[in-house]
Amino acid sequence: MNSKRPRKAPDKAADAPTVRKAIGKRASRGADAAAAASLVTADHAGDGDALRDPSLYLNRELSQLDFNFRVLAQAQDATVPLLERLRYLCISCTNLDEFFEIRAATVRHAQDFEVPLPPDGLSPGTVLRRIHERTAELVDAQYASWNEILRPALADAGIRVLSRETWNARQRRWLRACFREEILPVLSPLGLDPAHPFPKILNKSLNLVVVLKGRDAFGRSGHLAIVRAPRSLARIIRLPRRVSGGEHDFVFLSAMLSEFVEDLFPGMKVQGAYQFRVTRNSELIVDEDEVENLALALRDELVGRGYLRAMRLEIASDCPEAIVRELLRNFDLPENAVYRINGPVNLNRVIQVYNEVDRPELKFPAFQPRQLPGSDSMFERLASGDVLLHHPFDGFSPVLELLKQAATDPGVLAIKQTLYRTGRDSPIVEHLVQAARNGKDVTVVVELRARFDEEANLGLADRLQDAGVQVVYGVVGYKTHAKMLLVVRREGRRLRRYVHMGTGNYHSGTARAYTDLSLMTADPHIGSDVHQVFQQISGLAPAIRLERLLQSPFTLHGGVLERIEREARLAANGRPARIIAKMNALNEPQVVRALYAASQAGVRIDLIVRGACTLRPGVPGVSDNIRVRSIVGRFLEHSRVYWFGNDGAPETWCASADWLERNLLRRVETCFPILDPVVAARIFREALETYLADNTNAWELQSDGSYRQLSPAEGEAPHSAQASLLAGICG
């Protein structure tokens, strides 16, 4: 049966009811979940009107945008290996793309459909204006880093990205031949006239607008033409050593298009060629209550994703103003959505240089993660006690090994797993397929709406189903973001559950690039809880009471508030009180107010928040006792740890959830306690304490919303949390 065709995110005000309906459903679900989850009474100290003052809150979008300045600072740090600095530049560019595709697009929707203001009280128009101002500063800094610092430094190291002005005669001949033989045949230039309207421009694609003079073979007068670069073309071309004389010489495709564009218009005079790129909204809006099959609906939506509403125009700095206005008109963009670029508009594509150049001395030193000692049998190992893995310092292989052994062990009856992001050719998928073929009962919750992985997850779901795996798409209205693996094994006359829970995805690649925590356990209470969560997701079970876990959207939000409030009561009664939490982002208003109230009560609070943070620390009388820091280093900080002092009997929790509204109220998330005191002490030492001591990769959030990079005080030794953890496995 075909699904009903879901409506696309609207470009026109006439379609406002569709989006307003979808946004309204999300808001109501969040409100219902908050009401069900909150254990805080109406007169909770954190709910006072004074703590709702908009001046106490930073804007989430602007805070998220500022994270990219901290990433870019790594590209400007001379102590970082040169090619890694190039990688950081590319990351900042890619992050900015995604920011406009998702965050800025969300603000534009809020402006169009009168969504209620966030806690900071800033109107969408004000936020969009500030986004433009801050982005302009970031773009200038990115291209200054490329043009003035990195490109010259790379050339000094024998890695040249050659501009058109520097090509010698031999290089030019080879590049022209390459253009004519490899590039020109796949280009389809389009002259603009009444019979040839402006073409559809794909999201983030490379394009040229060309100014022409003369008449073509049909007698048509030239004016403007558009040249689109197909995605099949490499954006960076490597020159052979015999041609260039250097081992690592590269040229941007955009430079070749600009230089040889006249070959596309014989008989016409090219008066100018200007590269441009448009970034579009990439947030898919599918009204899940209106479709019969989510997979079919998403496949339908993905077809048009690359042509949704335009959000940003990047264009060559020398492009005439009249052409810029024409492009803005065509893309229905305001003047503050254009960014003039002093270099290639797709600067992030220079990551190809990082990937292709084999110069180990210009990259971070390679390392081998720790491997788990002990028994060859993962079941025997876990039966003897909990196992903690701190990625990437500990290898991901024990998780793969547990699944591999489960797939072939005759005692294993069932395997259940959530998959949010897995990566291509994942061994996890191979093991799940093998388990199903071996007669195990295998259930996999595949989150089809994992942003930018929707298409990959659709293919993954098809493959698993073809192998006989029962695939569940999650819960309507709530993304399944929990990271859980459950193995049910018969041992003698009883069944035993083995569990893996983590703060990160089941992705071997990111396990080497992100910091995350994994708990592997045979604890029967945790196993029972995980089993019940899987039953709840795959079936139509009512709300359940879990013995050990906290779960979004039901008990995690209230559980966090309850523990913050407990620390506040302890402090008010003169007892020791402390909160340390590490996460990717923080914006949930009730949590922020509860933290403010705890600070007022005297609780010392340290937050390690990598990205967006709407809490304003250091405000006299409100957040004097709160410190917020962000760590930006070799690895992407991704682990989520909540630690509560609890009057000398500390609680340590790890979770798949940040303290964001979406994670606490509109997703399926799990938060698991660390019950083994040895494991809990290790988490405190490795994931919290060493990060609070970092004085080289740490940035401290100021009360005005700016960040200050920390450095060792006089007489203080430099300390990098990530470097010290690496030294523990490499030293």
- The overall average pLDDT, rounded, is 89
N→C terminal distance:
60 Å
CATH architecture of the largest domain: 2-Layer Sandwich
CATH superfamily of the largest domain: Polyphosphate kinase middle domain
CATH topology of the largest domain, anyone?
A: polyphosphate kinase like
Which class best fits the helix and strand makeup? alpha/beta
Task: Describe the overall structure.
- With 731 residues, the chain is of the alpha/beta class.
- The protein has three domains: 125-362, polyphosphate kinase like; 378-547, Endonuclease Chain A (Endonuclease, Chain A); 551-730, 2-Layer Sandwich (Endonuclease, Chain A).
- It contains 20 helices and 27 strands.
- The strands form four sheets. Strands 14, 18, 19, 20, 21, 23, 24, 25, 26 and 27 form a ten-stranded mixed β-sheet that branches. Strands 10, 11, 12, 13, 15, 16, 17 and 22 form an eight-stranded mixed β-sheet that branches.
- Helix 19 (677-692) crosses helix 20 (721-730).
- The protein is globular and about 85 Å long.
- The protein starts with 15 loop residues before the first helix and ends with a helix.
- The model is unreliable at 1-47 (pLDDT under 50).
Show the helix and strand layout.
Layout: H1 16-37, H2 60-75, H3 82-113, H4 124-156, E1 159-161, H5 169-183, E2 190-191, E3 207-213, E4 224-228, E5 236-238, H6 241-244, E6 248-252, H7 253-260, E7 269-280, H8 294-303, E8 310-316, H9 321-331, E9 338-341, H10 351-356, H11 378-383, E10 387-391, H12 397-408, E11 412-419, H13 427-437, E12 441-446, H14 454-466, E13 470-472, E14 479-480, E15 484-491, E16 494-502, E17 514-521, H15 524-538, E18 550-552, H16 556-572, E19 578-583, H17 589-601, E20 604-609, E21 626-631, E22 636-637, E23 641-644, E24 651-655, H18 661-665, E25 667-673, H19 677-692, E26 698-701, E27 707-709, H20 721-730
Parallel strand pairs: 1-6, 8-9, 11-12, 12-13, 14-25, 17-22, 19-20, 20-21
Antiparallel strand pairs: 2-4, 3-4, 3-7, 5-6, 7-8, 10-17, 11-15, 15-16, 16-17, 18-25, 19-23, 21-26, 23-24, 24-25, 26-27
Helix pairs in contact: 2-3, 2-4, 3-4, 12-13, 16-17, 19-20
